[in-house]
Amino acid sequence: MNKLNQTRHMNLWFMGFYLLLVACSSSDTAHDIVSKTQDPVFPNFSRHQPEVFSDDGAQTNAWGDYDSDGDLDLYVGFRGRANRLYQNTDGVFTDIASQVGLADEEETRAVAWGDYDSDGDLDLYVGFTADPTTHNKLYENQNNGEYFTDIAYSQGMNRSGTTRQPSFIDYDGDGDLDLFVAFRDQSNRLYRNDLQAFIDVTDISGIGDPRRTVGAAWFDADNDGDLDLFTANQNGDEDGFYLNLGNGSFEDVGADLGINQPGRTATQGSVGVAVGDYDNDGDLDLYVASYGPDLIWENQNDTLGFVKRSSGEGFDGDHHSVAATFADYDNDGWLDLYVGTFISTIAEEPDYLFKNVYGDFHIVTPSLLLEKGTSHGIAWADYDGDGDVDLAVANNHLEGTHTLYRNELSPERTGNSLQLAILDNQGHWTRAGATVTLSASTWNDSMEGQPGYVSSRVVDTGGGYSSQGATPVHFGIPSGIELVDLTVRWYEDGMQIQTVSNLDHSLYADRIFEIRLHPTP
Prior knowledge:
The chain is mainly beta. The chain folds into 2 domains: 3-36; 45-411, 7 Propeller (Methylamine Dehydrogenase, Chain H). Helices cover 9% and strands 40% of the residues. The protein has 7 helices and 36 strands. Strands 18, 19, 20, 21, 22, 23, 24 and 25 form an 8-stranded antiparallel β-sheet that branches. Strand 11 (178-183) and strand 12 form a beta hairpin.
């Protein structure tokens, strides 16, 4: 969007917001206003099954269809109580963790779903806090979720330590899922999947960052056909950016790119990382939640490089932000942002929901979402299949709860979306890290003054602070767009590209559009 049109539309947005303020009672707070309005610009959420999602001590969560029945289930890791696996049956959740062997009682800090054995069902990695009597677990899914078996010992993955972000990714482009695990108290680990047997390649890959890593994000930053890695490091440590050299090894170029953030104090550091195309230019940017100022690293698209942006109210200052994740909650075609915070010297700092207004973020947190405590795991997903994204928040404060918020977006807006399942040619969910770009050659020119639209998403590799979701890719679509083009870039023997042209997204308002990928021979 050119600057003139961007300024014009932002002025209209703020004028509308001002008129809404004038129309409301002087006794209404800003949070009351945004929670009352039905305008899709403003968020409207409700608590879903509060009698079920009520336990304190939740730390991490991950969405995934573990039983292959077509809807998204939710795994939640706790401290001080057994973990939960909430089975989704037509939007109603029931904890069945003890029935399927997933009710671990150790303090759980990291979870990730991934079909490591390519048998069509999702397996689960669970990481715990530092305890010499506890080892991290790799659960193999037996018969579409009838039971899970821990195979970590047989795979040489029974490591103990202060575990943080795990990621199932195909870093070597051989078609199966490898596993990266971040640790805060030791070097990070990279396990290569060789015919369903994992080999620790940490040392030979050069990825064993000894700094105190708590967040990690994988994506193809330089558009060369393989996945690169950003590591968010704590306690004053510099951040890392590991460029995939395409030969099984990595090089930390964080300092060369200027995104390592040197000179931080021991009380400062990066925590959660979110990947998304916040400015709708077709490439993937980074949002880093920090102890200290939060920031955006804007991808420069045509070359490997990032520019630091402060693109929203509330980003600067001394925060204790922990988790961050992008999603288009109002289906307007721009990625919004939820940031979870940690109670510290800042008295009861709340979580924040930021609305993206043409690349600038503005706080619109409704009163219902003013979580206060320690919001660790946060993850968006459309659990009820109505076309908008809902939000799971794991709050590990003793006075907080794990909460599922249902997005009550108006019916006329829920249809302005498209959800995609990126599968292999067997129909298996194995393409974490793939980039999906949605574009339209025209975008209601007479109203928007915009010749076209483009936005990219990454198939989730983990984020929201030690959380992850094997979920469909969700696009909100601006009003006026009827036909869209899709480009999927995925990584097997180099970059593979698959396209879909002139798709009428309205035909898929209530179902998921599947793209099965076929490698070029």
